[in-house]
User: Fold this.
Amino acid sequence: MLNLVFCLIRKDHYIDFVVPQLHQLKIDFFGHADLILHESEMRRQTGAFAILADSDVYSRWMRELLAWIEQTNVAVISACIDKIALTRRYAHPFDPYDLAIRFCLERTRQFLAANNQSQRLTQVIFESRGKRHDRAAGLEFDQILKQANPLGHHLPDFSQFPLDPLFIPKRANLAGHQLCDLLARPLAKWSFNASSHRRPMQIIQPKLIAHKVFPQTGWRRPHRSQRSSYWPGNTRLNPPANSSHAPR
Assistant:
């Protein structure tokens, strides 16, 4: 399973709240802000997160961490790719990461248009996965902006919404990377089990503007009370039937 999460945050809010509040949270529990939050290590309570084995500490940590997420003004876009189902359904499937980038960028463009961001530069910060993977992701990014589309459906016009991709390693300790990492697992689990991760999803869902599950269920809509005015409608993103990528 691959789940790609985009967190759209205003730079002033990121600088004034997201970063300093996360730093303070780390200092309060671990004594310094250099620690990088890894959802898997937190869950397993290994390494520096061994202190979370104490149930009282764990409860306080999760309460404070979820409060930070809840207070963060962020729009979340998520694409969950079932890699096993993808290979079973399509004879020659596209790269799951490329698919996820494409889905998320299309919804990012809709968000920017709805929020009057035309002609304003938006930096898209990816977690670096190594030179080869970064180069491939950068090429896919460029193809999307140029409206080159092997999937066979219409692509939105990005010409009025300049995007600048940056590939930064996890060791840079960016708050945005860690926020995305914390959201990825609950969103992936929730994609196939609506009762999973109830408490985190109660916080995430009001911030979730688009969530794509592929190739199974399409866009999952939040409850109507949580939908924003820019929630996108359904979009057909399957390869066309006569494509070499179509199921056989």
